[in-house]
Amino acid sequence: MPAEATAYTRRILCTEDDADTREVLRLLLEMDGFQVTCAATPSDALGFAKAEKFDLYLLDNWLQEIPGDLLCRKLREFDPSTPILFYSGAAGEADKARAMACGAQGYLVKPAKLEELTAEIRRLILTA
C-alpha cells in the first residue's frame, strides 16, 4: 500500500481510447493507491461520470468520437467542480489553451514520468 494511501481511496475516471495506454495507466495508478475506472470512449466516460462520483477525470485530448476538449465541456455541464487533468500526446500550446478554456485544471504531455502524473493528480484532488 502506498505511503500516501488513506482510508478513503481516491477515484479516477480515465478516458483513453488506446487500449494499451488505458491498461498501463490503470495498473500504474492502482499500484499507487487510486481506484481507477477506465472508459474507452467519450460516451462511456459520460455514462460513468453521470452514474458515479469521481475525485478526478483524466482525459486524453485525441479521442475517437469527439475531441477531449468537447468531452471536458460536456462533463462541466453537469459537474462543475471535479478536477479535470488532460494527459495527452497533443503538445501544442493551442491544445493546452483549449483544454484549460473548457474547464480543465491541468495538462500534462505524454509521456510524463509516473511521479509527475501522480503528483499532479494529488495536487488537483487536494486543492479541489
Please explain how this structure is put together.
With 128 residues, the protein is an alpha/beta fold. It has one domain (11-123): Response regulator (Rossmann fold, 3-Layer(aba) Sandwich), CATH 3.40.50.2300. Helix content is 45%, strand content 18%. The protein contains five helices and five strands. It has a five-stranded parallel β-sheet with strand order 2-1-3-4-5, with helices on both faces. β4 (84-88), α4 (93-101) and β5 form a beta-alpha-beta unit. α2 (42-51) packs parallel to α3. The longest helix is centred in the last third of the chain and has 14 residues, at 114-127. The protein is globular, with a radius of gyration of 13 Å. The protein starts with 10 loop residues before the first strand and ends with a helix. Residues 1-7 have low confidence and may be disordered.
Report the uncertain regions. Answer: 1-7
Could you give the order of the helices and strands?
EHEHEHEHEH
CATH domain fold name? Rossmann fold
- Report the total helices: 5
Gyration radius, to the nearest Å? 13 Å
Terminal residue distance: 24 Å
Average predicted confidence as pLDDT: 89
The CATH class is: Alpha Beta
The spatial strand order of the largest sheet comes to 2-1-3-4-5
Broad shape: globular
Number of domains: 1
Largest sheet: 5 strands, parallel
Considering DSSP H and I runs of 4 or more, what fraction of the residues is helical? 40-55%
In CATH terms, the superfamily is Response regulator
Strand content: 15-25%
